[in-house]
Specification:
Four copies of one chain form a homotetramer. Chain A has 188 residues and is an alpha+beta fold. The first copy, chain A, is built from nine helices and three strands, in the order E-H-E-H-H-E-H-H-H-H-H-H. Chain A has helices spanning 12-15, 25-30, 32-38, 53-81, 89-96, 105-116, 131-142, 148-160, 166-179, and strands spanning 2-7, 17-23, 39-48. In chain A, helix 4 crosses helix 7 (131-142), helix 4 packs across helix 8 (148-160) and helix 5 runs antiparallel to helix 6 (105-116). The longest helix of chain A is centred in the middle third of the chain and has 29 residues, at 53-81. Chain A is flat, with a radius of gyration of 21 Å.
């Protein structure tokens, strides 16, 4: 059995996919013409001779993706609200994609998103997640491998979808209780 | 010069304060009657002979307080929304204050807050912070002392007050851009 | 079926345990004499009528415990290595247990550990973990409940036991690769 | 005054630098020939008309860099020690640079580092940091902008250099104190 994890996003339909295969080498060799037809040059390979390794690798790929996205998003948030409020995010994203250490496919996505609307005003601050980030976080915990930034990137998405957090309300309640601190009361 | 950090919250007006002094020992000895009058037994002392050490200690105290509060708040959030949704939070808080490893003044505050209203329905999920947590996080970074949980507890409060996060909107924008993932659109 | 989570540590053999029960109320009522015999006053109760809720509650208890311990440990690390290096940790722990917001059973444990040896010089920086913290982190991720500080407290223990981190070596390798930064080379 | 933040690493001497300028537009226009001579096409621009904005932008760039590096390093650590221990890291890095969502300059650095030695056996797990990541974390805290993953990436480097962590020893001490748990004793 050969298993194949696939990455590339919607642009890959034109640009070619990336494929990570796991399983028997003879099965892999048999499929070479498929990989050559569908993938970018150098964008495919056998990562391990055990079946499952392909999707395992793709799962870790997605966890890294979450972490990199979180790092980028926090940075632009700081640009947008830091001491130079109003600085040109589009110009910045463009420069960051041409010769910077952080140039990347994800930064190109940021660049095109900001080019369309630098205020992102049609979007709500809610971020979905699919399963791979969570599986990777589980695996890391199961194996006692530290996975802090990537796990947090997943947890941040959970936070983004939690509009009436019980945890935050309890924090406010504790402060009121011990310090008599004023709180924001709900109209409910 | 003697500097004195004070803790105890509003109940300390009756129960006695806790005081951490920094500075000259003779000045400290001179003030003993004051400490005895205002503090709980054993709840005061000279932490260092350098002025400023008292408030430094109190600053670190507050950073720990943030971290402990965050740990507790996350735990009750999981009780409230975990596999046993609806389990009795008041009963739990009471037990946790009588013989458990996590029994603490803060847990007593949780107990009395929940006793008043286990749903905390009059509170908004907005958490304020005063300066000490931030100063401690700065100091830790300045000295390269890892301070992850306590720094996060501060950052969590920032998150709680950020209702239209640019970072979260940019994450959603990236997902739409590379994956064609559906997003929650804003009515704006 | 009645399930009962137990807390209290080794001192509980004398001081009385804390017990969180889950299951049928009649079974719970039947066992009252046992709870009364073994527990602290108010330190036992039925948290939910579904079996399993007792251990679920105890599992969350332990995750909070990890988070609180991490918060405290980071604070003392900052006291020990901050701007007032050498300040009196024992005195501080004592004051913090008498009237401070962060007074707690765990802080008492710190106080007695420091009283024995304020340098903790017989200990290696390796921290074990049992399963409950991990289960709670899994459960939180499964239910999309943010659990950042408590999960990190677990991950910190993994970090503590990872003496030749591949992640850290790869970070150093990347820095050398793109920046020509000097690295600490291994004698291997 | 025109200030110019520069990125690109050592390869930029050949490939061209990236430059983020802040300050007066006429001063910027005056310097265009310099930017054209030293930078990659599209790899330079005026991010804001206030002096200082160039280095501010470069500072945030470096914080993102830390976060992205941490995300990548954690992922490879999980590949190296996860369920498919021994899978081919070089092959994986190569595929990830050809058509994957996480393809990036930093991933190319990983690829060349692993090509030289997939075990990174000449490196110690110690990671240095220069000032920018710290300044960005300060700025974020000052402005109450959540910056969790990028701040953690900095703190992880502090952890990497802390071989005899007092925090970890105190955690072990607390466990021994309340639970009688065995600890790793130091030969000291």
């Amino acid at each position: 059995m050969l298993d194949v994890g696939v990455s590339g996003g919607i642009v890959a339909a034109d640009a070619g996919y990336a494929m990570m295969a796991g399983g028997d080498r003879s099965a892999f060799d048999h499929c070479r013409p498929l990989f050559e037809a569908m993938c970018q040059e150098n964008g495919w390979g056998l990562v391990d001779e055990r079946s499952g390794a392909g999707h395992f690798t793709k799962m870790v790929h997605n966890a890294i993706e979450y972490g990199m996205m979180q790092a980028i998003a926090e940075g632009f948030d700081l640009l947008e609200r830091g001491s130079y409020e109003g600085l040109d995010l589009r110009e910045t994203a463009r420069i960051w994609n041409h010769g910077c250490i952080i140039s990347s496919f994800l930064m190109q996505m940021v660049q095109s998103a900001l080019d369309r609307d630098a205020k992102l005003s049609d979007l709500k601050p809610h971020v979905a997640d699919s399963g791979e980030g969570r599986w990777a976080a589980f695996e890391a915990m199961e194996r006692a491998v530290p996975f802090v930034a990537n796990t947090y990137a997943l947890q941040a998405r959970h936070i983004s979808r939690d509009d009436d957090s019980f945890a935050f309300r309890l924090l406010a309640a504790m402060r009121r209780e011990f310090g008599g601190h004023t709180v924001k009361e709900s109209p409910r």
